[in-house]
Amino acid sequence: MSSSRALKLKRIPGGKNYIKPATANIFIAGVGAVGGTLIKQFNKLDHLKYDLKVIGFCNSTKVKWRDGKISADELYGGKPKQWDDIIAKLQSFQGESTPVIFVDATGSPEVANLYLELLENGIHVVTPSKLANTTDQSYYNSLKRASDINNVRYYYETTVGAGLPVIQTLRNLIESGDRVIEVSGVLSGTMTYLFQELEKGVKFSKAVVKARSLGYAEPDPRDDLSGEDVARKFLIIARTCGLEIERQDIEVETLIPDQLKNVDPNSFLSHFADYDQEWQDRINSELKSGRTLRYTGTFKDNKIVIGIESVQKESNLGRLFGTNNLIQIKTERYFDQPLVIQGPGAGKEVTAAGVLADIQKVMRS
What we know:
The chain is α/β, with parallel strands linked by helices and 365 residues long. It has helices at 33-43, 83-92, 109-112, 115-120, 137-149, 166-175, 189-199, 204-213, 222-225, 228-240, 265-272, 276-288, 348-364, and strands spanning 8-11, 17-20, 22-29, 50-58, 62-65, 79-80, 100-104, 124-126, 154-155, 180-186, 251-252, 291-300, 303-312, 324-331, 339-344.
């Protein structure tokens, strides 16, 4: 890929140099929490360094094409969305030195299924959605292959740890010849928050309701309590490290009682309160022995295990607070002292910032 997309010094009359900004044409699918925040971050960028042209954006029904500063509110004047038309229009924006980048901030299976066509048509893809990378191994392989063959970028840093540099760190280690031996830790900001509230004496069911109101948990909390979110993150980690693995190969401990797996979300929350005392007794028992509970995952020996772990209260995991994640990477080079990455693992601001960083990596490549 041409290096002309990187920042350049250009001679102008008078003998002075100026920085030519890196440019890109951006299309954003999904203008909700992450997509809407990303738009605001675009408008605050230093445009002397990065010239990001948002050429269009869409929601589930409407699409609008434009240039310059934007607001998601403009979608109210958009036209009905047709994916074939959108992809054809994106191809018309392709130029030798200006990449076209498709940002998927929808969490929609329909959009995730478009990635292969986009990459095959020379359009870069950046996404915080886990869906494409956690479907069949064959689809993940096809995306990586299309990215290589067509010399386009497929970046998904924010699928694991929001804005934390987990995926890029793993890629750098592997590409430099290191071998990943083990990846472990806490990758659910929601679970960190819930167990911290439980330690304070807050009823578990009330903590779940509060987490949902703060945007830490999904509208249906079972999406978090099932462990599925953490399982998907570790599946992405394992595949990034080169392991061929399917979702059904992962052992996952769920926090959802069998009796509540199939009820509607509101009934689930009301009946989940029946288990509050059980959870309080469990955490009190841990705290008496100087320990606490964390929801952890481990990728080791070509196997992934996800579930509740008892840890020392004064350990790195035990001291986690808020929505923080902590991931430990052990490799041949970093064996005695593994790499540790820690920070907020949830939130629209840090996730949007991570997406923006991926876009800027495309522009510099």
